[in-house]
Amino acid sequence: MEKGQVEPRPVLVQKFGGTSVATAEKRAQVTGHVRQALQQGFAPVIVVSAMGRAGAPYATDTLLGLVKDIAQDTPARSLDLILSCGEIISAVIMAETLRAAGIPAAPFTGAQAGIITNGQFGSARVLRIQPERLWQALDQGIVPVVAGFQGVTETGEVTTLGRGGSDTTAAALGVGLRAVEVQIFTDVNGVMTADPRLEPNARTLQTISYREVMEMAQLGAKVIHPRAVEIAMEGRVPLRVLATGSNNPGTLIVDAREISHRAGEPVTHVEIRSDRVVRAVTQM
Ligand code: ADP
Ligand code: ASP
Ligand code: MG
């Protein structure tokens, strides 16, 4: 590389769930993870869920309740429009939190991020990603913060991807941007042998195959959305489930054949498996 040329940066998608962005304290932890990714030489792309769980002012269930108080037969198109707002609020707040910490960042709705879906309101499927605007931001050294759980149809209708669908946004962006890894930050240390709310002795797994975790998710373990696993598996992007605010490497989800030689290995070094890298540097 010539002197003065900027080191290329591989894309790393980092998704933060509702509890991870619920308070200023948690958002400061998110900022720490983003800063660390930048310092490690990655170009992070952030995906956020709506802030907090049921009862929080802009949580998905709260928005749903606002409409249900008026009518029981709200058109699915209207429901998707209001539900998409929780993630949009979260994206703006997280982008501003990053900017306030000196990290250039900009929020994007699903539509602005180029997430094109079919027209199945409430559980739309991602058809393709048109990530030009995200590449533009990355090339300018700006960290994109994308509103999870939503997309847009070819005709401009706002859609949502099904409950828990921000994971799907992260996986789809991971494939579309040819990311080195998609990190799903949440309120547990990783994929566990059972739901820790029901089984206090549950253990965190170091690695698990796409197929095994998909089976768990389909059986109702909501730690990760099954469609996110499917998309990552087909696109051959590794997933990692880990806790916000912790340095624990969490659970790596890869193809069964890769498990033996990648077990527990955290992404602490730049491993360029991507043919699309970003050339801008973000100030820290
Ligand atoms: P987020 O808002 O970050 O997307 P979710 O509530 O959707 O978080 O998923 C995390 C939750 O999944 C955990 O708090 C945990 O109770 C639950 N869960 C269910 N099964 C499992 C499992 N096998 N391993 C880990 N967490 C699990
Ligand atoms: N906020 C949405 C939900 O509660 C999407 C998500 O959290 O992934 O289902
Ligand atoms: Mg979830």
How is this structure best summarized?
This protein is an alpha/beta fold. It is 32% helix and 20% strand.
Given the helix and strand composition, which structural class is it? Answer: alpha/beta
Major sheet details: 9 strands, mixed
Distinct small molecules bound, one entry per kind:
adenosine-5'-diphosphate, aspartic acid, magnesium ion
Oligomer: single chain
What is the straight-line distance between the termini?
Answer: 23 Å
Query: Using DSSP, what is the number of strands?
Result: 13
Radius of gyration: 18 Å
Instruction: Give the overall form.
Output: globular
Fraction in helix: 25-40%
Mean pLDDT: 91
β-strand amount: 15-25%
How would you spell out the order of helices and strands? EHEHHEEEHEEEHEEHHEEHE
Low-confidence stretches: 266-276, 279-284
How many helix segments? 8
Describe it.
- Helix content is 32%, strand content 20%.
- By secondary structure, it is of the alpha/beta class.
- Strands 1, 2, 3, 6, 9, 10, 11, 12 and 13 form a nine-stranded mixed β-sheet that branches. It has a two-stranded antiparallel sheet with strand order 4-5.
- Strand 7 (150-152) and strand 8 form a beta hairpin.
- Helix 2 packs antiparallel against helix 3, helix 5 runs parallel beside helix 7 (226-235) and helix 6 (210-218) runs antiparallel to helix 7.
- The two termini are 23 Å apart.
- Magnesium ion is lined by residues 17, 164, 167, 222.
